[in-house]
Amino acid sequence: MYIVYFYENRNLLLHQLRQRMPAEGEEFKIKGRKAKVVSVLTSEDNKVQVQVSLEPIVKKAAVDLSKKKKR
Fold it and tell me: How would DSSP label each residue in 16-63?
């Protein structure tokens, strides 16, 4: 069992107890967002630090209500 710490830049996103270590390039979801493993660093025998890159959040543009037809 490994204690896996997931970081984006220097921000701790999540830590989990897992059966296996994630591999570089592996894709999965963290908090509903797609993530890809950038690097894996083993600090102790069962502690693993994983750097991930998250997919950026795409915000939808607001609907323009001024062009609606008035009756």
Answer: EEESSPPPTT-EEEETTEEEEEEEEEE-SSSEEEEEEEEPPPPPPPPP
Query: Which long-range CB contacts under 8 A does 34-39 form with residues at least 24 apart?
Result: 35/6, 35/8
Q: Which long-range contacts (CB under 8 A, 24 or more apart) does 65-71 make?
A: none
Task: Please give the pLDDT value at position 43.
Answer: 86
Mean pLDDT, contiguous 10-residue spans, the chain (71 residues): 94 94 92 92 91 89 70 69
Taking the whole predicted model, whether its pTM rises above 0.85 is answered as: no
β pairing state of 2-8 and 47-54: parallel
Q: Are 50 and 7 in contact (CB under 8 A)?
A: yes
Rounded-to-integer distance, Cα 28 and Cα 18, Å: 14
